[in-house]
Design brief:
The structure is a homodimer of 430-residue chains. Chain A has 18 helices and 14 strands. By secondary structure, chain A is of the alpha/beta class. The first copy, chain A, has three domains: 184 residues, 3-Layer(aba) Sandwich (Rossmann fold); 143 residues, Rossmann fold; 30 residues, Single alpha-helices involved in coiled-coils or other helix-helix interfaces, CATH 1.20.5.1300. The first copy, chain A, has a six-stranded parallel beta sheet with strand order 1-11-10-9-12-13, sandwiched between helices. In chain A, helix 11 crosses helix 12 and helix 11 packs across helix 13. Chain A is globular. Chain A starts with a strand and ends in a 5-residue tail after the last helix. Chains A and B meet through helix 6, strand 3, helix 11, strand 13 and helix 16 of A and helix 6, strand 3, helix 11, strand 13 and helix 16 of B. Strand 13 of chain A pairs parallel with strand 14 of chain B.
Chain lengths: 430, 430
């Protein structure tokens, strides 16, 4: 049974605040270990990568090589069954088409004073893409992280993926090839992040590192931040389903479980105005759990972090939605368009009864890398914007300098910065 | 004397790489101190703020109040001389006009399959703006940080500024009022960052914290990152001037010194194709230093981190520019437009001989908060985009679900996620 809250109860406000504050992850302090690994990779380069990979992944890189060869990628493509390969290509085409619309355009204009102002967007030259090994090695995530980089025009998209005991999901290599990844190395953990940030003889450094990973990878990304850019640190996934009683309880239960099966720390929340429907969904969750291959994970997530919130009406629910700031928000109600303008904080919104969140995980076209842990209050999902940067340009002639100069000089003097004032004054006719 | 490098010398490549790797800041490990302060503010709220402010700023907040009142702000406005106030308003109007062009627009379209896809941009609800006290308390920085928030539509712009011994620059309050700051508190350091992130009885929490600060502030921002968003961690400022021999050596020397006077860790670099001009600029720097109020700071910066690089021509200089990825780049050459397309990595470009970087510090209209320490390779200056976030929307009907569903199911199954597959399949007619 998930947590049950009722908006009408006197203790609701405190209970809801407690739900918001719920910690779903045990934070591991691995900073010292990670820092030692990074220093070692900086000092010894490839030799350190070989040592750590032997130790942590039980793999001899001197035998296999650090890089995954074009032949290995070819061979992997051959191992993927036709239907899955087609689905990957279909997803890639849709993701690419959508992200192409995100490319920002340069802007340059001359203002009434004659000052030229502009923004130039350029792609980051080289980006590292961390792909986890094992259970969380998802080809869909390779597409979601690599395609916006490809669209942005990043020249080097460098993937690292750990291969514990030499094992590697051929689908991950297939996705990488479809998404235009330029180099792939069979390394993981903090050592892979260090190699991407500082480079080794084999791996040239990148300017930014993206992609999910475990506590060691997250700590390593934080530590190299500054030397390189990083994306957000992803937490466990969550869904918030807003549903009225006219839905199929089975559909909504399936959506809640789709989130729950990701991770025991995932969170699925249902907000409904219908107590009977809430009961029906809870029953459907229990029933569907019985036939789920990842029942243990999904069951734990639902039991520990799942919640059902009963509200008198959906308009009063929207402030709760905004405080939760969910990664994924489904609006499965008769008139979702009436609620849409009231949503302020959410990573992605799935509108109507026929838009399960899972479509967005794979083939909707939008990105599935979205802000978790309430960070949709201040951040956005992954997009082409994460792979470009803006340079501002400013252009004055003599006339414009005469017009703007006196104010600049006044402010420089007020700030006690004489050389600032001089740099303007020396160019003026006075 | 600054460092002198010549592109034609055999040792140039190594010397240039060493210049790139030069560390200009002593990194202080203040993490434990900061973490204790944050915990204390979380636990004791206002009482902790009062204690730390008494200790670090020698100020009794129980006497003054934590908040700065409207009357105090009025009084500060009265203390600012007319010319400076007019200059602040002039700067504000120009910065505002430029940033209004940065507001992203929502996008919604229906693709050929009938799937609705879109991006909705909304402002962050509440933002904290850290303003340093003492020497680095610049009203121009208040404008640069607050105006994009104002343009974005942020409802609460909350400023914190330490007032050591009760002292506060009235210009900072004037700038805050002009830029629409909604609340101001006389606190600083890690305790102010903690108050903004977690809230106290007096201060409601914000969703993102921006603005420069010392090592304690920077460490605190890193530690609260995740609970709130943060902007980039600013390092000491730098300028790269690309100038031919047709410039006035005095103008270019003034530009180099304007950067150098900020901070002993600031860096000013000149790239020129004219050895005689290089000598003239060095002489002009020495001469101008004699009449500069901040000569000690500027002289130390120039001596320790300044550099003059002689190149055979400017086209060969552009790869050096891109590796340096300067915060500020001046192109003081006959035909800057020929070089512009070759610049990939720079925070801001100042085009032509009549656009000293200082204009951009105050009244150009573009933002002066720019990526330092080579981070222009992967990041951008502050803009309206830093105060908004994007929510993606996806909308399918039954037909679209039938079209996209099979690929989603195939990928979910390939990833071993049964509940994902079910959430789609259960909605399909099969």
């Amino acid at each position: 049974m998930a947590l049950r809250l009722n908006f009408a109860d006197s203790g609701f406000s405190d209970a809801f605040t407690a739900l918001l504050a719920m910690k779903r992850e045990v934070s591991q302090d691995v900073n010292d270990v990670v820092s030692a690994i990074i220093d070692d990779v900086r000092a010894r380069g490839d030799a350190a990568l070989i040592d750590y990979t032997r130790k942590f992944d039980r793999l001899d890189l001197q035998e296999t090589g650090i890089a995954i060869s074009a032949e290995e990628i070819e061979a992997a493509m051959g191992k993927v069954d036709g239907e899955t390969l087609e689905a990957l290509k279909f997803a890639h085409a849709r993701i690419r088409a959508h992200h192409e619309k995100q490319m920002p355009t340069d802007d340059y204009y001359v203002d009434p004073v004659g000052v030229g102002l502009g923004s130039r967007w350029t792609a980051i030259e080289a980006v590292g893409l961390y792909v986890p090994g094992g259970l969380a090695s998802y080809p869909s995530s390779v597409l979601m992280n690599a395609v916006p980089a490809q669209v942005a025009g990043v020249e080097r998209i460098v993937m690292v993926v750990p291969c514990p005991d030499g094992e590697l999901n051929p689908l991950v290599l297939a996705a990488a090839r479809i998404a235009g990844v330029s180099e792939i190395y069979r390394i993981g953990g903090a050592q892979a992040v260090a190699a991407l940030a500082y480079g080794t003889d084999t791996i040239a450094p990148v300017a930014k590192i993206v992609g999910p990973g475990n506590a060691y990878v997250a700590a390593a990304k934080k530590q190299v931040f500054g030397t390189v850019g990083i994306d957000m640190i992803a937490g466990p996934s969550e869904v918030l389903v807003v549903a009225d009683g006219n839905n199929s309880a089975d559909w909504i239960a399936a959506d809640l479980l789709a989130q729950a099966e990701h991770d025991e720390a995932a969170q699925s929340i249902l907000i409904t105005d219908d107590a009977g429907f809430a009961d029906a969904v809870e029953a459907a969750v229990e029933s569907q759990l019985k036939t789920l291959s990842r029942a243990e994970i999904a069951g734990a997530s639902w039991r520990d972090f799942g919640a059902v919130i009963l509200v008198p009406d959906f308009v009063s629910a929207m402030p709760l939605v905004n405080r939760l700031a969910p990664e994924h928000l489904e609006l499965a109600v008769d008139d979702p368009d009436a609620l849409l303008p009231l949503v302020r904080n959410a990573g992605a919104i799935f509108i109507g009864r026929h838009t399960p969140e899972v479509i967005g995980d794979y083939v909707g076209g939008s990105n599935h890398v979205l802000p978790t842990a309430r960070s949709a209050r201040f951040s956005s999902g992954l997009s082409v914007l994460d792979y470009v940067k803006r340079t501002s340009v400013l252009r004055l002639g003599t006339e414009q300098l005469e017009a703007l100069g006196p104010s600049a000089i006044a402010l420089a003097k007020a700030e006690g910065l004489d050389a600032h004032a001089r740099s303007v004054a020396i160019r003026m006719n006075r």
